[in-house]
Amino acid sequence: MSALPAIPLPAAAPDPLDIAADLARQLQATAIERDRQGGHAAAERELIRASGLLALSIPTQHGGLGASWDVTLRAVRTLARADSALAHVFGFHHLQLAGITLYGNAAQQRDLLRRSATEHLFWGNALNPLDKRTVAVGSDDGFVLNGVKSFASGSLGSDWLTVSAWHEPTASALIGVLPTASAGIALQGDWDAFGQKQTDSGTVTFDNVHLPQRLVLQAPGVAPTAQATLRSQVAQLIMTNLYLGIAEGAFAAARDYLAGEARPWFSSGVAAATDDPFVQHRFGELWTLLRPAEVLADDAGRALEKLFARGALVTAQERGELAVAGATAKVLAHRAAIEIGSQLFELTGARSTSAKYGFDRYWRNARVHTLHDPVDYKYRDLGRHALTGALPEPTAYS
Asked: CA distances (Å), 85 to each of 46, 89, 261, 351, 391, in order?
């Protein structure tokens, strides 16, 4: 009896983290030169779009890849090892998608997320909660927006924007979404920090922009639910993984340089820089900064995914416990990025400061981004929790 012909199995879907690693290699090829030039990385943003990873966090029922939040955050970290500016743009794209899920109703989620997946839309941010210069005035069908928003990461080159505006009658903000090309919206590429140069975090102006009611995610005067306040935790964990990616990139760059190009100090008595006991000791110290931050960031990412899956059942207690886990991971990632980005030069020596290596970008990028919100307030929240059991107050930064 002849054997039956083998039935071919369907090809397994590619691992999104493998896709992210391949994308990171493409970004790495031009990262140093683009860091020098700054400006808008239009071609590289199209590489991100072409990778399919813009749909990474979109649920499969809406046409996305349906990745968990811990996987999405690890993809951000993977890109940040090569290019933390574009990793920021990528991470904040997924932050806007999270906002649709957390604030939007079922119809908004279905329409906006499915459109994002099928049209490969790139989302930008104009939701700086501390900037109240954009005001909203009620109209027959929604609101009219006028004013300015600063630190609008990812706005330049985006297809849609998440926006916030101050509503004076209720002394509160509204949150909505708009096509970036809407009449009255103008983007300015005026971001000029010494690090994170290609995050497109410039200024957005609104001149009599109509925000229809159907695109309002959170109406003014409505208190956010515990579920909705998860948005700030998504943002904080994106930053945590950005910092970790910078730290991991700097750590790997120093290691590779020491193994391939560095000369041992003349009095070390060793033939290779990697055999110098002082270099080994210092690398051990850096490892003990990096590894705990990685473990706690992954743990917080899994905790975020669990709460996201609970939907409207999320409690204030659960949300607060996630904030403690996220703050702990973030302060460690903050320290790792700053310290490794700086100390790598003490290990690699004077020749490593050549501009061709671009090693200074790790510290510059970390220094700029870690100023997003003061780390001392994270320590305060953690100390208060350790002393009294109090959970961090839900804000846009905690």
From this structure: 15, 7, 27, 26, 32
